[in-house]
Design a protein that fits this description.
This protein is an alpha/beta fold and 293 residues long. The chain is 36% helix and 16% strand.
Length: 293
């Protein structure tokens, strides 16, 4: 009987090691586990990476849910899909020849170089044009909409967008200045919701609120010092909830333009919430009111 030689790898050991590496790489590609530090050293560091210059009509979307939702949106004009083999299987696109746009098979490292080392792209990136511009007049049949007064963080706006879709809001309205434009970061935070709700950017918030009033909306601004709780302030058949940026809150002109100011009563020790959490609570209250009205 032969004895095993220490340090010698059998074919079986090598086979299982290969399977383990393949499984680990697949999980890393899906964003389920982080890339090891030693691998990141081989990539462009955060300090060295520079975002590519995009044309005004160019948007890069990434992440499985985000890309899948964009592919399902008939209003999306798609230029190209860059995807790993594993992500292509997860997207379930069917034959790539029938998609109607180019499909490029890439590695995760290719997307890292383009999107940055911190982007959790899950092996999928879509190059598209921005969604068509929407007008406020199209919202006349929506009973609930959300208005943001200079909320600048795309992660917060994306999270709010996701909640807005969950509560069946008709639109998310923001200002053109001091608000994020359509982007991969916002879309990834929204996890597909960007394709499901109009994202309307307007030049002047006070003018937009006045137009909403003419369309029959009662606008309620969320303010920590509002005279009454939100539940006691809601009225009418169509509601526009208005939220300001964390810290600053609503601007003075906005406070003067809304029909009413209201607060979210919080009995606990913490008296303030992240704007995306406040938006979700406010929409729940508004939807409950509209259901009973």
């Amino acid at each position: 009987m032969s004895k095993d030689i220490p340090g010698d790898k059998s074919a079986k050991d090598t086979h299982y090691a290969t399977l383990r590496r393949a499984h680990r790489d697949a999980r890393r590609e899906r964003g389920e586990i982080p890339t090891p530090v030693q691998d990141r050293r081989k990539k462009t560091s955060n300090a060295d990476w520079k975002a590519p210059q995009l044309a005004p009509d160019q948007v890069l979307l990434y992440g499985i849910h985000t890309v899948r939702a964009a592919l399902d949106n008939p209003e999306r004009k798609i230029t190209k899909l860059s995807v790993t083999q594993n992500a292509l299987v997860r997207l379930e696109t069917g034959p790539v020849e029938s998609l109607g746009f180019p499909v490029e098979i890439v590695t995760p490292q290719d997307l890292d170089k383009l999107l940055g080392p911190d982007a959790i792209h899950q092996g999928a990136m879509l190059e598209t044009a921005p969604l068509p511009v929407r007008r406020l007049s199209a919202l006349k049949d929506s009973p609930l909409i959300l208005v943001l007064d200079q909320v600048t963080d795309p992660h917060n706006v994306g999270a709010i967008m996701r909640s807005a879709v969950a509560f069946n809001a008709g639109a998310l309205i923001t200002t053109m200045r001091h608000s994020p434009t359509e982007s991969g970061v916002m879309a990834k935070s929204a996890s597909g919701a960007l394709e499901m709700i109009p994202y309307i950017q307007i030049a002047n918030l006070a003018d937009a609120l006045e137009e909403l009033h003419k369309l029959g909306f009662v606008s309620v601004g969320l303010d920590s010092e509002g005279p009454a709780p939100l539940e006691q302030t809601l009225s009418g058949e169509k509601i526009a909830l208005v939220l300001g940026a964390e810290g600053k809150g609503l601007r003075q002109k906005t406070r003067q333009t809304v029909n009413a100011l209201a607060r979210l009563d919080m009995p606990g020790a913490i008296k303030s919430l992240n704007v995306s959490n406040a938006a979700a609570i406010a929409m729940y209250a508004a939807r409950s009111y509209l259901t009973k009205a």
